[in-house]
Amino acid sequence: MMEQETEKREAVLGEVLSVAGMEPQALSIRVEKLIQIKTDKIQDLQFEVIKIAKKYNELLKYFHQKMDSLGIGLSGEEMEFQPIKVPDYKLATHSSLKYFSLFLTEEARAVIRNKDREVEEAQEMAEIDIKHVTQQIKHLQYEHQTRLGEMKAEYMTQLKMAQEDHGKQEQELLKDKRELRRLLREKEEMIFVSE
């Protein structure tokens, strides 16, 4: 009986899915996502209830302290307001860091805010330092390229001058060589003529 009813429901679901043009896996994924969204929302709302209950209890405690400081002592039965008790298991179900912020004192929150501010300032200073160093590097690269160009031009000029000097020296050496050959031939002719 139970199996027949389950089969009927599966058949009806299959028809609805085919009419809608959906795959059973797609429906399953969508349902799981929806359940997760709803679960997260429930946890957030539970957290908000805990947060409000804590604030209420703090306010009630402050009220008692103020009444005591004014000399008006009220017992728990005389007061209409009672602290709200929140079970610990509800606190443990919310794994977010929001839970821990409930227990931070105002002084601890101030320290955290100051540290956050210091971190932000340090990040800003680091960004400024990075920009400054980047600008210095670009400037040094520009100076290096300029100096490199100047040195290249200077060395090219020196190379041309050295080539010209070398060419002149070579011409002079060739001229001297011709002159020495001419003198040698003249000497040989003189020796040949004198024999």
User: Any idea how many domains?
Assistant: 2
Radius of gyration: 49 Å
Q: Are there runs of 5+ residues with pLDDT below 50, and where? A: 89-96
Describe the global form. elongated
Major beta sheet, specifics? none
End-to-end C-alpha gap: 150 Å
Structural class: mainly alpha
Task: List SSEs in N-to-C order.
Answer: HHHHH
GO cellular component, one term: microtubule
GO molecular function, one term: small GTPase binding
List the helices and strands and how they pair.
Layout (H helix, E strand, L loop, with lengths): L1 H19 L3 H46 L18 H6 L4 H4 L4 H89 L1
GO biological process, one term: cell motility
GO molecular function: microtubule binding; small GTPase binding
GO cellular component, one term: Golgi apparatus
Explain how this protein is built.
It is built from five helices and no strands. It has two domains: about 1-90, no CATH class; about 120-195. By secondary structure, it is an all-alpha fold. About 85% of the residues lie in helices and about 0% in strands.
Short description:
The protein has 195 residues and is mainly alpha-helical. The chain folds into two domains: 1-92, no CATH class; 122-194. Helices cover 84% and strands 0% of the residues.
Keywords:
single chain, 195 residues, mainly alpha, 5 helices, 0% strand, elongated
